[in-house]
Specification:
The chain is mainly α. It has a domain at 27-71. The protein has helices spanning 3-11, 15-52, 57-70. The chain is elongated.
Length: 71
């Protein structure tokens, strides 16, 4: 289905169906934004790991996190 077909289908929705679609689409967009944010955070963590590598800080941080999980 291409964009034009989607547009045509949306114009045929009743007011109630359009309201349901809007609600669903807002939720869909919010989930997509959360996923984008999550990916950005993962990228930042990867960069941080790379910048700390070889300095001992990463190992100390990871050991601290392991200990926190055991408590």
């Amino acid at each position: 289905m291409d964009v034009e077909e989607i547009q045509q289908a949306i114009t045929k929705l009743s007011p109630d169906e359009l309201a349901r679609f809007r609600s669903w689409f807002k939720e869909y967009e919010n989930n997509a934004k959360l996923n984008d944010s999550k990916e950005s955070i993962e990228d930042k963590v990867k960069r941080l790991r790379g910048s700390l590598k070889g300095k001992g800080a990463l190992e100390a941080l990871m050991e601290e996190k392991r200990r926190e999980r055991l408590l």
